[in-house]
Each structure stands twice: as C-alpha cells, then as structure tokens.
C-alpha cells in the first residue's frame, strides 16, 4: 500500500467523481463530496505548515482510502484522520497508512506528537491506533461526532522523551 499526496487538483477530480492520475476508486467514490470538500479545505489551511497534508491510500492503482493531518497544535502535535472505503475495510490499509504517517512524523523535528480521535463505538479504528503504539489520553464530546476517545503517540522530538 502506498500513500500518495492528494493535491488540490486531485480533490477537484475526486469531488467530481473522477479518480485522479489514472487511478481507480474502490467501489465507486472513495468518500462523499461533502467530506472531500471538507478535507480539501483542511488541507489548504494546513499545507503552509505541513505539505503534503493529505494522502490517498493506494493499492494496485486503486484508491482505497484517505488519510490526512486534521489539525496542527501549538504544542507541536498533529491530529490525524483516516478512512477506508467500505468495500476495502478489514484488510490492514488503515493500519499501514497510520504506521507510515507515524514514521514520517518521527522524522520531522517539528512534530512533538501524533494525535487521533475515535468514536467510543469504533473498535476497528481503536485497534488501528493500538497496533501503531498510540495510548489513550482521555475522552471528549464533539457536537458532530459524539463521544470520542483521544489518542497520542510521542515522537523522538517530544519534550516528554527528554
């Protein structure tokens, strides 16, 4: 599985239902136009600090999911998000993507920690983070997403590891 940068042009294609760069989409659209538009806007805000900010998960020239930096914290943390097309879940794509993002973050001196959030009911996503060494750091409530579990993993550049 490869992570390939998702450019603004790629988002435009995906929103229109086209797969960019000669790729195919798993089982049709990889995500709804609404979610793709939101991710496109997030990526445009994050790119000035971290570029790339969003990636397509690609297996055998097929886009099977997306992962991205959702937020850059003032403490040197990055909040990541990921999703796999419903037809391609339970095949290790999310675990591989998160592992690749954590490896990248460990090599970037600006990143102190990688954070993520999962729904309290989303056990598969929780397992992805556990497999990649994330620790639960708390819970919070979000108006749109409900009850969430907060996760974090420090990088070698973390002030906590000094």
Name its key features:
162 residues, alpha+beta, Aminopeptidase, eight-stranded mixed beta sheet, 4 helices, globular
Q: Radius of gyration from the CA trace? A: 15 Å
Give the end-to-end Cα distance, rounded to a whole number of Å. 34 Å
- Major beta-sheet overview: 8 strands, mixed
| Principal-axis shape | globular
Structural class: alpha+beta
Task: Pick out the low-confidence regions.
Answer: none
- Structure summary, number of beta strands: 8
| Number of helices in the DSSP assignment | 4
CATH architecture: 3-Layer(aba) Sandwich
Helix share, percent: 25-40%
Per the CATH scheme, the topology name is: Aminopeptidase
Give the C-level CATH assignment: Alpha Beta
Task: Please trace the helix and strand order, writing H or E for each element.
Answer: EHEHEEEHEHEE
How many discrete structural domains? 1
Beta-strand share of residues? 25-35%
The CATH homologous superfamily corresponds to Gcn5-related N-acetyltransferase (GNAT)
Mean pLDDT level: 92
Give the helices and strands, then pairings:
Blueprint: E1 2-5, H1 8-15, E2 24-25, H2 33-46, E3 54-59, E4 62-72, E5 77-84, H3 93-107, E6 113-119, H4 123-131, E7 135-142, E8 146-154
Parallel strand pairs: 2-4, 5-6
Antiparallel strand pairs: 1-3, 3-4, 4-5, 6-8, 7-8
């Amino acid at each position: 599985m490869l992570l390939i940068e998702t450019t603004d042009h790629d988002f435009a294609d995906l929103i229109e239902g086209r797969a960019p760069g000669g790729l195919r989409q798993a089982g049709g659209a990889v995500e709804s136009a609404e979610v793709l538009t939101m991710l496109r806007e997030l990526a445009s805000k994050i790119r000035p600090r971290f570029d790339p900010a969003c990636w397509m998960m690609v297996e055998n020239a097929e886009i099977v999911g997306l992962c991205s930096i959702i937020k850059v914290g003032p403490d040197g943390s990055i909040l990541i998000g990921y999703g796999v097309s419903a037809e391609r879940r339970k095949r290790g794509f999310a675990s591989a993507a998160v592992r690749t993002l954590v490896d990248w973050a460990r090599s970037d001196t600006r990143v102190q920690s990688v954070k993520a959030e999962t729904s309290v009911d989303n056990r598969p996503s929780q397992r992805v983070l556990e497999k990649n060494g994330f620790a639960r750091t708390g819970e919070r409530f979000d108006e749109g997403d409900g009850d969430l579990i907060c996760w974090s993993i420090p990088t070698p550049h973390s002030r906590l590891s000094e």
